[in-house]
């Protein structure tokens, strides 16, 4: 495959945009080469500026659960745009999507829409701090909750891919209120509570981690966090920006049967438009302005185009009783195929998967936390990535990312992917 035009476009972009990209994970810095410039996408496929067709396993980092340019979403956006693109005033549409979201997700009474997952998580911890009147939060090494200051402490995703899990620019004052724990290590979390009695406002966690590759919670881990929170008057925040409306209608809360106090959403809830949201039961949400003292706002929050897109997306997921089962089956099929091919080629690997989130780590030992995720062989990953790309398969350009499976993938696409893995595995 040729990437001449992408290379030219990247060089041009680099003159006026830092690194040529508006979000670092899009750059190919850790795998080498030129980021691919997309021209358009439909269903499971990307079409780039050089005329290549790629099977997409990023899917806009999650939201394209039903495929790119999903007709009901596209049509809703077109129709809505004709009636005005922003008012900064309430619309009936916002209530409609809020009602639907509240009906799909357990343990929430009210929801507020924002413009990104970053905003959702940032607002969720402010609300937790205001509600509990405490300052500290616990986050897990390798988890990513957007780029707001409190979270850029041992952060995953692009922050770790590009070597700045603790970003310069985050003040010591802010950093001291973020306590760092090991994913899947309850004892470690318990010791933070012992060392900081009555000071911890919230634990924030990706209930299935997706930003250090995919790492599922070990048995009893989320239950243990729930108990620790209850025992210490601390709120449990599930960052469901990736898992929400993907692992189940009600996200990880439903899948694992664990109650969170605040839930953050992103991506999916906007059907690919810039949307995030956070939600909780009444007593917590009523703490927000204009009802309560915790301030949070946004000119474009609840934007009509974004709400129209999100509503169609949620309706489609809510009305299709089998979509999550289909996604799980497709991903299980892919997992089985990849395992067989890597094993046959004698490649050392670990695959982690929960539902339609999956990742391949090039290391034999179990990958259960940030430390074990960091042990993967990045040289092998680079070869794997570029080998797949040559075969027309596009996975995230970093070993610290998860593959997101879309229902638009056919079993032929999955077979083509498995065959590509077989070819590439022979070269590793
Ligand atoms: N939380 C999680 C779990 C995420 O994966 C992301 C983005 N990948 C965010 C928060 C931040 O969302 P956004 O990029 O929309 O700001």
From TrEMBL:
Keywords: Cytoplasm, Isomerase, Porphyrin biosynthesis, Pyridoxal phosphate. The modification N6-(pyridoxal phosphate)lysine is found at residue 267. One of its GO terms (molecular function) is glutamate-1-semialdehyde 2,1-aminomutase activity. It is an enzyme of class 5 (isomerase). It is found in: Cytoplasm. Gene3D superfamilies: Aspartate Aminotransferase, domain 1, Type I PLP-dependent aspartate aminotransferase-like (Major domain). Its EC number is 5.4.3.8. Its cofactor is pyridoxal 5'-phosphate. InterPro entries: 4pyrrol_synth_GluAld_NH2Trfase (IPR004639), Aminotrans_3 (IPR005814), Aminotrans_3_PPA_site (IPR049704), PyrdxlP-dep_Trfase (IPR015424), PyrdxlP-dep_Trfase_major (IPR015421), PyrdxlP-dep_Trfase_small (IPR015422). This is Glutamate-1-semialdehyde 2,1-aminomutase.
């Amino acid at each position: 495959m040729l990437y001449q035009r992408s290379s030219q476009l990247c060089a041009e972009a680099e003159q006026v945009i830092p690194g040529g990209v508006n979000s670092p994970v899009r750059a190919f810095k850790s795998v080498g080469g030129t980021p691919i410039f997309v021209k358009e996408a439909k269903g499971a496929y990307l079409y780039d500026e050089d005329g290549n067709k790629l099977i997409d396993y990023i899917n806009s980092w999650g939201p394209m659960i039903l495929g790119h340019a999903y007709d009901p979403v596209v049509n809703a956006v077109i129709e809505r745009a004709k009636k005005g693109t922003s008012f900064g005033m309430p619309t009936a549409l916002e209530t409609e999507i809020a009602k639907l979201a509240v009906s799909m997700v357990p343990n929430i009474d009210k929801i507020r829409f924002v413009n990104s997952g970053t905003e959702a998580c940032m607002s969720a911890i402010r609300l937790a701090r205001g509600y509990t009147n405490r300052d500290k939060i616990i986050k897990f090494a390798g988890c990513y909750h957007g780029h707001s200051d409190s979270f850029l402490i041992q952060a995953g995703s692009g922050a770790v891919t590009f070597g700045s899990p603790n970003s310069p620019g985050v003040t010591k004052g802010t950093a001291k209120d973020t306590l760092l724990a090991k994913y899947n290590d309850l004892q470690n979390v318990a010791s933070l509570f012992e060392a900081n009695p009555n000071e911890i406002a919230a634990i924030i966690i990706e209930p299935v981690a997706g930003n250090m590759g995919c790492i599922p919670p070990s048995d009893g881990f989320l239950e243990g966090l729930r108990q620790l929170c209850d025992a210490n008057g601390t709120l449990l925040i599930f960052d469901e920006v990736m898992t929400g409306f993907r692992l189940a209608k009600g996200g990880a809360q439903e899948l694992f049967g664990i109650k969170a106090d605040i839930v953050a959403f992103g991506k999916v809830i906007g059907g690919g438009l810039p949307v995030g949201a956070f939600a909780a039961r009444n007593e917590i949400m009523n703490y927000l302005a204009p009802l309560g003292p915790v301030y949070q706002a946004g000119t474009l929050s609840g934007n009509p185009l974004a709400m129209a897109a999100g509503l169609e997306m949620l309706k489609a997921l809510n009305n299709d009783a089998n979509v999550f089962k289909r996604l799980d089956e497709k991903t299980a099929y892919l997992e089985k195929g990849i395992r067989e091919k890597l094993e046959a080629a004698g490649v050392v690997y670990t695959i982690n998967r929960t539902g339609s989130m999956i990742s391949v780590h090039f290391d034999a030992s179990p990958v259960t936390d940030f430390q074990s995720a960091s042990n993967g062989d990045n040289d092998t990953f680079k070869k794997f990535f570029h080998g797949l790309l040559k075969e027309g398969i596009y996975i995230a350009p970093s070993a610290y990312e998860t593959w997101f499976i879309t229902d638009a993938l056919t079993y032929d696409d999955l077979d083509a992917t498995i065959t590509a893995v077989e070819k590439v595995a022979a070269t590793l």
